[in-house]
Amino acid sequence: MSKKRVIAIILAVVVILGGITVSSISAIVSSFISNSSSSNVDPFTEETEQQGSASKRIAHLTLNGEISDESGGGLFGGSGYDHDAFMKQLDNVKKDKSVKGVLLTVNSPGGGTYPSDEIYNKIKQIKKKGKKVYVHMESLAASGGYYVSAPADKIYAGPQSMVGSIGVIMSNVDYSGLQKKLGIKENVIKSGAHKDILSSSRPMTSDEKNILQSMLNDSFDRFINIVKNGRHMSEKKVRKLADGRVYSAQQAKENGLIDNIGYQNEALTALKKDIHAKNAEVFEYSDSVNIFSTLFSAKSTIKQFNSDIKGIKSVITNDSKAKPMYLYEG
């Protein structure tokens, strides 16, 4: 038995022993947060980055790490990105009439197709409110990181940024050869020919590859369309660029994937000029220091704990199911 699996089993025992307590706490916390949310309690406070006009403000948001609807961190690592919190920040920006512009700093390899699309949709809603959205890309804005950036009014990237990786990916591992050597055989009873598609205990059939490719093509076509509309390109040009590669900042600018090469302060200066507010207040969100934010954080921790349970189960049973991802894996 491998060392990794022994550690996973020990962790599983600890998780099981604490499971009932965690479930009880989770129920209490979720109930409290649900009731507090209906009372419009906000888990965030604002921290001023630059003093200025309170009637024309700029919200500085940061998207850092892999885009996932699971909480970041935990026993199995993670990016630290909190999707629920980030979506709440976008909602706050959308509702706040004093916010005239958004500077979104992106440093992400992308992630899940669904949470990436949720962010994209929320940014579109913010723009419909007449607010300007500028993106500044740091070291990496790839795949889903580019997907969420595409609708921005202007995109800036640092001189050493990597941009692009337009595409979709899905993968799984075939353990059938190893299982055969070990004398392990899985018995599957199913209602349809493709019910166990992506099974790790047998090779994938050509029909299954075609089914999955067709599904990925739908996600890919949506990505193409979003870039086409956001960057005002022809579909032909976008498809030519969308072979999965990342581009340097210079290449991205030459191909129309970004507007300018520059640093965050340059993007902010341009945004202030665009909204006609050189003296705009610039702020960011941080967790509120109150009982609600403490419980909000507790809910996030419990959510991550539950995610870790799934991770432990995956290690023990090899029950890892693939799904489409807007993710750069370089």
Automatic annotation (TrEMBL):
<dbReference type="GO" id="GO:0006508">
    <property type="term" value="P:proteolysis"/>
</dbReference>
<dbReference type="Pfam" id="PF01343">
    <property type="entry name" value="Peptidase_S49"/>
</dbReference>
<dbReference type="GO" id="GO:0008236">
    <property type="term" value="F:serine-type peptidase activity"/>
</dbReference>
<dbReference type="InterPro" id="IPR029045">
    <property type="entry name" value="ClpP/crotonase-like_dom_sf"/>
</dbReference>
<dbReference type="InterPro" id="IPR002142">
    <property type="entry name" value="Peptidase_S49"/>
</dbReference>
<dbReference type="InterPro" id="IPR004635">
    <property type="entry name" value="Pept_S49_SppA"/>
</dbReference>
<feature type="domain" description="Peptidase S49">
    <location>
        <begin position="126"/>
        <end position="275"/>
    </location>
</feature>
<dbReference type="InterPro" id="IPR047272">
    <property type="entry name" value="S49_SppA_C"/>
</dbReference>
<keyword id="KW-0720">Serine protease</keyword>
<feature type="region of interest" description="Disordered">
    <location>
        <begin position="34"/>
        <end position="53"/>
    </location>
</feature>
<comment type="similarity">
    <text>Belongs to the peptidase S49 family.</text>
</comment>
<keyword id="KW-0645">Protease</keyword>
<protein>
    <submittedName>
        <fullName>Signal peptide peptidase SppA</fullName>
    </submittedName>
</protein>
<keyword id="KW-0378">Hydrolase</keyword>
